[in-house]
Each structure stands twice: as structure tokens, then as C-alpha cells.
Amino acid sequence: MLAFLILVTVTLTSAHHPGEHFEGDKVFRVHVEDENHISLLHELASTRQMDFWKPDSLTQIKPHSTVDFRIKAEDAVAVEDFLGQNRLRYEVLISNLRSMMEAQFDSRVRATGHSYEKYNQWETIEAWTEQVASENPDLISRSAIGTTFLGNTIYLLKVGKPGSDKPAIFMDCGFHAREWISPAFCQWFVREAVRTYGREIHMTEFLDKLDFYVLPVVNIDGYIYTWTTNRMWRKTRSTKAGSTCVGTDLNRNFDAGWCRIGASTNPCDETYCGSAAESEKETKAVANFIRNHLSSIKAYLTIHSYSQMMLYPYSYDYKLPKNNVELNALAKAAVKELATLHGTSYTYGPGASTIYPAAGGSDDWAYDQGIQYSFTFELRDKGRYGFLLPESQIQATCEETMLAIKYVTSYVLEHLY
Asked: Which of 38, 75, 83, 107 could form a disulfide with 88 if both were Cys (CB 3.0 to 4.6 A apart)?
């Protein structure tokens, strides 16, 4: 048995961590007190390559906040010296990124095939979408709503008992390639819907009375790339004429205050907003589907990581949505519900003031289309693992998130419009 386990570990690590380029990379958290600290970080960024984890870019750093960023191994000493000399308070969240990547695969589940307690590669998820639909024809149907830049099919699962004129909730996962816990949640949600229908009173009522449109991975090309080439990739894999830099940030590509704030016009940046709103095929597929089903979609839920937050519009502006009081109360109650299981604490509020301003997000866009209940979830954790949440936390993360999603669903059913 032991020999088998060792063999599996070796194949997993070599398959999942192509290249040695993360060996010795560090993730720092810096405590930013004032504008002077922000300008020091700008100075540092001009000389060293910084991969911002939270916030997403240099421009989004605010006084009295923390900044998490990854530094290449060869720059780590120089960065620590700089932070120390300038009296910037910091801690090292991850001292060796590569060993943390390997530690991600710590779940005790089987080594092959699809599993709800593991991170699954795209081909496994794709096969799962077909299987789960064919095994549950009375509850799930699968459709293709478009293709990605590289030609991968974007699959959507419709979950619910067949019926006419049913209201719907749209939920997507995997906007940002490296946020692996996000697609894991969409898969978990579908499993729970199927598993508990007819056995658990709330889920039974939900699926009888409404439909869930579940998009397990939006950014398929990027997700595949995080498995084959670069675990830390965030954007799509689209190319632009005249630039050698690859990819667009899908969550800056929607037509909601497009590229106004917290987004970049530089194709090399992590928050590149694209050449135009909806320039990306993936954005177009999501937006077209929602536009075509606007009369039935009553809530929009988009799942990201990390930082344990439940956000609502707006992010492209500091203005508040018309039903701000209602959304705030709903978010407060949902995160309270989420905390009842494992005590996980979430913060909540409008995107711009709660996390940072960012234009072109799908949640703001959905809200501006008239979908009154629009939320972004930032799942676990708060930075100890960041984008490398261990598989052993998938179950707990998904279970608690289910509570919040079910709370929102229940509320939406009672407040149909």
C-alpha cells in the first residue's frame, strides 16, 4: 500500500507542477498604513516583478489595508531588505510556494477519476458534466453556450425539475484560472442538489419551484493552463494583435463602467480589461445567455476566491445600488448562516468599499441588467494558503458556502419580482 501511495504522490506532483519555477517563491503580506507606504510599494514594483494576490493590482492598494503578493525566489532577499529598511510591517505568508503547491493535494480521496473532494482537471470536469446530466435526466440538462478563445466548449448545467415559466438563479465558477476552490464549489453544488432532492425539504422545494443555471468553469483555457504550465495564471489565454502578452481578465471585461477604475488597458497586466467590453468569447457567452434569459433570472451568483467576503454592487463606482438596504441585510444574514457550521467569518458589503474598486465585473453588469440579487462570493481563506487552499478544506468550504447559497435562494423565492 505504501509503495502505491508514494507512486501516486510522485505522479501527482509531476503532473500538477510543470516546471520548477515556483521553487523558493515567497508570498508576502504588507501592512499599508498611509500614502507613503503605497508609494514605497510602487517603487518596489518598478524594480521587482510582483504578482498581486490581494488586491489584484498596485492601483487598488488603499491606506489601512494589507497587500498580499508573490515574489520570485531570486528577488526574495532584496524585497525583505527593502521592506525592512523602509520600516514596512510585513509577514511571510508562504515561504516556499512550490512546497505549498504540493501540499494542496492532501486529501485522502482516491487518486483517479472525478472526485468532489479533489481539484479536478478540465477534461475530468467536462466528462463529469456529461455524466451527471445523463445519470439525472429528470433534474439536470447540459447545454453548450459558446466556446473559448482556444475552442473549448463552455458547458452550462440547468438544474431543476422540468416546468414552464420557472424563475432561475444563475451561478458561475472559475472566472479566474488560479482560484481552484471556485469550480470545486460549482461541482459540489450540483452533487448536493441531486443527492438531497426528495430527501431534504429546502432543496426539494428549490428544484421544484426554480432552476439553477450552473456554469462550472467560465475561464476553461486559463484553468487548463494552471494545470499544465503555470499554476498562478489568472487571465484567459487570448492573444491580441500587436502585443506579445497573453490573456484578459474576464472579470474586468463586462460592460459595466468598463475599464474606468481598478482595471488596466495594458495587455501585460493581470487586470487587463480587454480591447473592448465583451471582447472575450467567454464574456460574450455568459452575457448572451443571461440577456436571452433575463425574464427568468432573478439572482446572479459568481464564485471567486480568496478573502471570505460576500459582495454586492457596485464595484465600478462608490455609488450604492437602489436596494442597498435589502442587499446588505441579505448578505449579513447569509454570512451569519454560513458561520454556523464551521465558525468561518465573512465580511460583506458593496464591492468598491468592501474590497476595492474594479470596473467591468460580472456582478455589476448583471445587476445593471435588472437582476436585483447579484452577489460575488470570495471563498476561503484569508491568505494563509490564498489560491492554494488544500484539498482537505474543499468539503468544509463547500458545505458552509451551501448554507449561504441556500439562504439566498430561499429569500429570492420569497421575494420574486
From this structure: 83
Catalytic residue set: 378
Question: Checking DSSP bridges between strand 65-71 and strand 89-94, what pairing results, if any?
Answer: unpaired
* Numbered ranges of CATH 3.30.70.340 in the chain: 2-103
How far is residue 364's CA from residue 263's CA, in Å, rounded to a whole number?
14
Q: Would you say domain 2-103 falls under CATH 3.40.50.360?
A: no
* Model pLDDT for residues 303-330, shown as the tens digit of each residue: 999 999 999 999 999 999 999 999 999 9
Quickly name the fold that domain 122-414 has. Answer: Aminopeptidase (3.40.630)
Q: Which residues fall within 8 angstroms of residue 299, CB to CB, at 6 or more apart?
A: 169, 170, 371, 372, 373, 374, 375, 408, 409, 412
pTM of the model: 0.93
Task: Please give the helix or strand (H or E) that residue 214 lies within, else none.
Answer: strand 211-215
Please name which of 105, 99, 12 lies closest in space to residue 391, comparing C-alpha atoms.
105
- Hey, how many other C-beta atoms are within 10 angstroms of the C-beta on 164? 4
Domain(s) of CATH 3.40.630.10: residues in the chain:
122-414
Looking at the predicted structure, is the pLDDT value of residue 248 above 70?
A: yes
